[in-house]
Amino acid sequence: MSRVLRAYELTLYQADDVIQALCPHAVFPLGLWQRAYEHFWKDYARTASMRQRAECLILPDVEMEPGKRFFTDLCGFDVMAFFRKLSLLINSKITKMGLEYILSETYGTFDNVYPEDRDFLFSTLQKLEQRGPDYYMYDVENLDDEILFLPASSYHFISHIFFDTIMVDRVAVVLQLRDFPLIHEVKGLTHAFVKSVLNSAPQEAPIQVAVIEEPVMQIADVQSQEPQSQDTVLVRRSVWAGKTKEAIRDAMRKEGLDDEYIVYVLLRRRGLHLTKRAIGELLGEPHKSDSAYDKLGKELVEKAEFVNVLDAPEA
């Protein structure tokens, strides 16, 4: 959402209206956090849980229902609580790497994003690690150790940045903000992309941002009940929800859908973290070279940037 805010110069209230209008199918609150978890944190969290014989720490569940308000601030508090537990569970360097990945994807340059808060948090965590695993800052003998005091407020900046980290479907955002001018080009939202989306959509009555009831039907009204261009298709949620990447591939190919739509569903709807090579291996012919799979995966990911998949009614 940080890019949407910058591109359209929205107020926080307008941006929240966009979130509410696009919930639940075009909003991915933990998409970026899930990528960081899968790529940086999951293995370390599993190792720690095995060592402590405890349940593995995972991201909080997020429930969004059509027509009901999604409280981003409450979700942000849940993510903050998760991050606090994670930071006390795994190595601070690994925790920091995952957070910096999120900040980089969200802001690009993030040197000015709560620098003092981040420095204090990770420097204190590093000092705690140097004391050894048996050190507990709240033991009576350590109460005077002010250097290693880590108040809960040290994590508040996580809840403050959460809204910016929410991922949204670009096509749905452009349609939702069709009456707003694109003021600044940012990564993923250029004048050319916005123009291509608006030109491919039927010229229906504009969507009112303030209305949050039945958000899926708002998008459907613009797109019509059947896809009006080769860039947008309707796919039943049961085709991909909770399925493996192989099952999704087979089901979507059975529906006659091209591979770029499969990639879109895998990455954007299912939320899987797949490398370009893994995508190439999944969708390409068997027994090819790694470079061939890399090339195919790259091509399909690029094609997937220009398509959209909306939910079709279940039979």
Radius of gyration (Å): 22 Å
Number of strands: 4
State the major sheet. 2 strands, antiparallel
Order of H and E elements: HHEHHHHHEHHHEHHHHE
Distance between the termini: 33 Å
Helix content: 40-55%
Query: Shape, please?
Result: globular
Supply the number of helical segments.
Answer: 14
Structural class: mainly alpha
Number of domains: 2
Low-confidence stretches: 204-230
The share of residues in extended strands comes to: under 5%
Q: For the largest beta sheet, what order do the strands appear in spatially? A: 1-2
Mean pLDDT: 83
How would you describe what is shown here?
The protein has 315 residues and is mainly alpha-helical. The protein has helices at 2-8, 12-22, 31-52, 72-87, 92-107, 115-130, 156-165, 170-176, 191-200, 215-223, 245-254, 259-269, 276-283, 290-304, and strands at 27-28, 167-168, 232-236, 308-312. The strands form two sheets. Strands 1-2 form a two-stranded antiparallel ribbon. It has a two-stranded parallel ribbon with strand order 3-4. Helix 3 packs antiparallel against helix 5, helix 4 (72-87) crosses helix 7 (156-165) and helix 11 (245-254) packs across helix 12 (259-269).
